Model the fold of this input.
Amino acid sequence: MKVIGINGSARRDGNTAILMEEVFKVLRSNSIETELVQLSGIDIKGCTDCGTCFKMKNSRCAIEDDCVNNIIERLKGADGIILGSPVYMANVTPSMKALMDRVGRVSKANDSLLKRKIGAAVVAVRRAGGMTTFNALMDFLLVMQMIVPGSSYWNIGVGRDPGDVRDDAEGMETMRVLGENMAWTLDVLRSYKDIPYTLESGSSV
Ligand SMILES: Cc1cc2nc3c(=O)[nH]c(=O)nc-3n(C[C@H](O)[C@H](O)[C@H](O)COP(=O)(O)O)c2cc1C
Done:
């Protein structure tokens, strides 16, 4: 089992990365592999609405000269996905938005590539906009048909300068509980993966 985290912050190894690592620690202690992809310093172009993904249906974005297709391949191979973003002007960062737009379109064009993966959103905030940002990430996870476990509070840590979130004891605890609930859900998935489950419609998955 593997969980990939995407950190949309412009600041590498900042508060968002620290919060995500707190979730990762619990996952690793449950024998779940983790990988953090940091978008800092990477230019991610926005969706051009060219429609090629819907025409080609090859699980790729037509924009080939950035990292998005590589990220799509890595997300396809993961059992769980954590999207992390600091709050920028009361919303997600531009890189995270561009990534969600393009991965979202490619996923929709290809029978929902991320369907039934375990998902979570993590947010770092200085003061305001935490819930809006959290909900923006959650909207993506849910419309991708992902399964989203919760935590003891919404997955938000408070801090401004890198490392500040470590002083937010409740935020850090929320990340650890999220890790436990993700690990539990992944374990259930692992146990049931090989047992064919018949939906009411009669189709097996
Ligand atoms: C461009 C920009 C916009 C920001 N907008 C907000 C905001 O709207 N609300 C807020 O509380 N913090 C805002 N912040 C502060 C960051 O959310 C905060 O410092 C966060 O901890 C950064 O996380 P990071 O270290 O992972 O980048 C902003 C920071 C930047 C660089």
About this structure: The chain has one domain: 2-192.
